[in-house]
From TrEMBL:
Residues 1-58 form the HTH lysR-type domain. It holds the Pfam family HTH_1. Belongs to the LysR transcriptional regulatory family. PROSITE patterns: HTH_LYSR (PS50931). The keyword Transcription regulation applies. It comes from Reticulibacter mediterranei. Keywords: DNA-binding, Transcription, Transcription regulation. GO terms for molecular function: DNA-binding transcription factor activity; transcription cis-regulatory region binding. This is LysR family transcriptional regulator. The keyword DNA-binding applies.
């Protein structure tokens, strides 16, 4: 058993695909298969079940993944400690929802690359529902989430920026003429919402349910940009973080509906941009540098917005 085999095993375990693991590691697929086969022969157990085109971790595979993560993290810790004379280096893997990639992270990533050019950044895409699990599994070093305030015993959480939610409509929507809008006004309206499980969709549903209103006419989108465009042409009403729509509101392309005060309690906590990492993960110099810069830059954004 060597580190190369464990790295390959971890990639297959995380992607549940020999093909995707090979692509991620820049190997040919046959090399991945051979390394897994040798590892299984050495340990005398089957690490994966091949169920047709599906790959599933066996119980032995799940046990090995736990130890493989520890060994590979320890190896990275040793490598970094020895080579850290020129500052942080190595690789950081991270993930975030589309909204944060688009509106919060570009300036942060640019500054990090300027300050720490020896650190390689690897971006992975997971759905909002998957992000927390992937951090717990060690598939990513760090992730940004846009959610209600998180509490966890397995994951460390830094709450960075409160993100107000807005009910938005086209400027010519009849609802835009009302002095305030509540759940009953949205009964029967076409709603344009993000994927099931999205935090602000859940908050919105709770506000509707409190008034006995059910969302019966929903179009579901994977992209907030698609939602914005559809709202602008009058297809329906949406709930989005203010950062996503503030430009279009300023330009008069969208309007924020005045939500009635009696329903504001459901939006009081709102959602927060948060950064999470496994609580048992070793904070390498590169990860520590990224966390520090994230706090510095995003906290500064809050101070500017509050000024």
């Amino acid at each position: 058993m060597d580190l190369r085999q464990l790295t390959t095993f971890r990639a297959v375990a995380q992607t549940l695909s020999f093909h995707r693991a090979a692509t991620q590691l820049n190997y040919v697929q046959s090399s991945v298969s051979t390394q897994i086969q040798l590892l299984e022969e050495e340990l005398g157990v089957r690490l994966f079940d091949r169920l047709g085109k599906r790959v599933v971790l066996t119980e032995a595979g799940q046990q090995l993944l736990h130890y493989a993560e520890k060994l590979l993290n320890l190896a990275e810790e040793a490598r970094t400690a020895i080579m850290d004379g020129d500052g942080p280096r190595g690789m950081l893997t991270m993930s975030a929802p589309e909204t944060l990639w688009t509106y919060r992270l570009p300036a942060l990533l640019k500054r990090f690359r300027e300050l720490f050019p020896l650190v390689q950044l690897q971006f992975r895409h997971y759905s909002s529902k998957e992000l927390f699990q992937r951090v717990q599994e060690g598939a990513v070093d760090v992730a940004f989430v846009l959610d209600e305030p998180l509490l966890s015993t397995t994951v460390s959480v830094d709450r960075l920026i409160p993100e107000p939610l807005l009910i938005i409509a086209a400027p010519d929507s009849p609802l835009a003429c009302l002095p305030e809008v509540g759940p009953l006004d949205l009964d029967g309206q076409q709603l344009l919402l993000t994927e099931a499980g999205c935090s602000y969709r859940n908050i919105f549903y709770r506000a509707l349910a409190a008034e006995g209103v059910h969302a019966n006419s929903v179009l579901e989108f994977a992209s907030v940009e698609a939602i914005k465009q559809c709202v602008m042409v009058g297809l329906g009403i949406a709930v989005l973080p203010s950062i996503v729509v503030e430009k279009e509101i300023a330009q008069g392309k969208l309007v924020a509906l005045p939500w009635q005060r009696s329903s504001e309690a459901h939006f009081a906590e709102g959602i927060v941009t948060q950064i999470i990492w496994h609580k048992d993960k070793w904070l390498s110099p590169s990860l520590q540098a990224f966390l520090n810069l994230t706090r510095e830059i995003l906290t500064h954004e809050v101070q500017i917005a509050s000024a």
